[in-house]
Amino acid sequence: MLRAANSLSKRYNPTIGYLCSNRDRLTIKDSFPVIIDIMMNLELLFWASQNGGPELYAEMACAHAQIVCRDFIRPDGGTYRIVRYDVNNGRIINKGTMQGAGDETTWSRGQAWAQYGMVVTYRYTKEKKFLDAAEKLADYFINHLAEGHVSNWDFQSELKHPDVSATCVVASALFEMLNYVENDSLREHYRREAEAMVQSLCSPPYFAAGLNTNCLLTHSVQFLPLNSNVDVPSIFADYYFLEALLRYRSQHKTGTR
């Protein structure tokens, strides 16, 4: 894990304060592309800084999360999937998407990566701005859920393809976030929403019992603009689904608020 964290740290650009993506669908001169998915990598850096790695790893992770708050989250709480920076000076070249329906829409799994990553960042830093960001991202996700508490692959798309993977990620993050939210009514609101998501995921048509698949869930979307793995089971949906169930069970066993 320390070796992996060291490898990840080499993607950090101190001029920009970000961890770089290793791919982009566009070729732009001097572009330093950053994708919202990297929020899920920050936990490795935070963990490594507390388990034998340099404190610099945590500083990198915190800096990355701060700039996601600044550049990726829209005023309404939605998110961009990718922001491209000039590698020389950190100037924003453009903002947009690769896996969503359009540059100004919100790809639901990108929203989920951002919300989960902000909860993790708050866990390690206890800086309120990251919890505030997590709540803002969660509110947007919840307010744009389709009927049945499962997200569409893109919240503004007319193409209706559920993506259970995004819902699994947010449900798991919400269960952790319950440990940090101080307001009783808000905490119960998030609890109800997380439990409603899990209830839907445990039921047809999303739970895959009896279907010819090794996965627990079906109806995920990997990369719809490329027509790649649309409406399929996915291992990452199952992972966060199980994590959400474990967190739910742990809270009920221990009486965690």
Kindly name the structural category: mainly alpha
Provide the CATH architecture. Alpha/alpha barrel
Share of β-strand residues: 5-15%
Low-confidence stretches: none
Shape: globular
Task: Give the overall average pLDDT.
Answer: 94
What CATH calls the topology is Glycosyltransferase
Q: How far is it from the N-terminal to the C-terminal residue, by CA? A: 32 Å
Q: How many beta-strand segments? A: 7
CATH class: Mainly Alpha
Spatially, the strands of the biggest sheet line up as 3-4-5
Q: Round the Cα radius of gyration to an integer and report it.
A: 18 Å
When the domains are counted, the total is: 1
Largest sheet geometry: 3 strands, antiparallel
Q: Work out the helix count.
A: 8
Order of helices and strands: HEEEHHEEHHHHEEH
Q: Which range best describes the helical content: under 10%, 10-25%, 25-40%, 40-55%, 55-70% or over 70%? A: 40-55%
